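User: Could you walk me through two proteins back to back? I'd like the raw sequence and the structure tokens for each, with a short line separating them so I can tell where one ends and the next begins.

Assistant: Of course. Protein one, sequence then structure:
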Amino acid sequence: MSVHDFPPKREHHNSKRIAPAHGHHLADDLPLIAAQLLQRRRALAWLGASAAGSALTLAGCGGGGSSGGSVAGVATTTAASTITAASTASTSSSSGSTSTTTTTSSSSSCTALPGETAGPYPADGTNTSSGSTSDILTASGIVRSDIRSSFISSTTQAQGVLTTLTLTLVNTNSSCAPLSGYAIYLWHCDRDGNYSLYTAAAESYLRGVQVTDANGQVTFTTIFPGCYSGRWPHMHFEVFASQAAATTGRNAVLTSQLALPSAACSAVYPYATGYTSSVNNFANVSLTTDNVFSDNTAAQIAAMTPAMSGSVAAGYTATATIGIAR
């Protein structure tokens, strides 16, 4: 509170002051001095009380401000914490919602893959080659993740650009839920376009079986296959209800193929060692002229084409979702 808060003194501009009459002796002055001293004491007492009141008022304002500041600070901090917590909760809720939406969207967009020919070189006991039946599925050691090496009568390792392929098996009749405990048999040609047990008769590489985990996934370590005349670059696979079913070589749930991405083929064939013959073969084929993929829908081709990333030097990582109706 400032001096401006006190009421202003009234000034009587038109009045005259009349000096009080008194004598000039000490006896006449003593009562006046005493009266003035009393008035002074009263004035000082009043000023003291006023100052104390002002101090209290100021202290109340200042203290209230300080105390109010503390209280406000606590309130502000509490509010900030609440806002932060709400923001965090909102973010978490939003993230959870986004995650759920993404999962739902992903699970509802899977496509049932069409059945395709196993080709002339499946080695699953369904055909003969040179008068004998090739059935690698009954061979010990066929259940493996790294399929680059031969394992029956040879230990030769197929050379080529390293490729790690992860397949996710889902049920298109159950919101695309993952299918665990199923067996997937994968096979494909080497970088020269030859198939083990057939055109590379002494070898058993680039063939293997894996069992899907709780997420419906299997992973194979292999090489990027070459492109041979008349066919778009591809990989073959068969799905079985169990490992036991797979190793008998019968009753596949699905037999189909994966089409390799054009961009990856264009990056590998002209620049990687050993793929020379693939350059011209790839230049002379397309998905629309391929005798396997040409009659599939755009959605099926998209599902049959793995997503790939990497380089010739570092190798490639590929993923694909295999939808089947169960």
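----
Protein two, same layout:
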Amino acid sequence: MLGPFSYVLATTVADVEAFAVPETSKAGASYHAVIIARKDRGFHTLSDLKGRNFAFVDPSSTSGHLFPKAALLKLGYDPDAFFGRVVFSGGHDASVLSVQNGKIDAAAVADALLEAAYARGVVKREDLQVLWTSEPIPTVPYVMRKDLPDDLRKRIRAAFLDIRDLAVGSHATIVRVDPIDDSAYDGIRETAKVLKLELKKFK
């Protein structure tokens, strides 16, 4: 299992392909990146964030950096010039808490992890607002080597697609596993191109 962007990177150095994605009790087969801010700061659109402090999660985070940064660039907001200060918080919860506590004006996080933070009482829903939402991002894929025998590949795929209601840890359940293919991650590749990230090849 790899993160969406990690999978795209993997295809540039290894002969692997995505074949399935888990749908959990907390999230479906896709999720979104969102940009959040406190409701009481008077921010209504992304343009209101000019000169403000902004947090991404981690340089390699799909929803906490890559997708929102690419979207900002497409909209004409170069984060390095548009925001007063840009930091990497190191985690989705850290970004959410920084906005809640007023240390950061706005941040990019995954919607599913924001909802989890609400559910745990880490932050209050009534204090925060979403200023932007990305297009659906395919979730973490299961991948396998392309050079495996065809019969084995079929059996692996069938075994994963038969999974139902499988507990993973103490906080989530894989409700089912859905089929997927490499083309589902073309949006990740396009995002990499916008950000001028150096991938060796695109499939």
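The two ends are 19 Å apart (CA to CA).

Let me know if you want the two compared in more detail.
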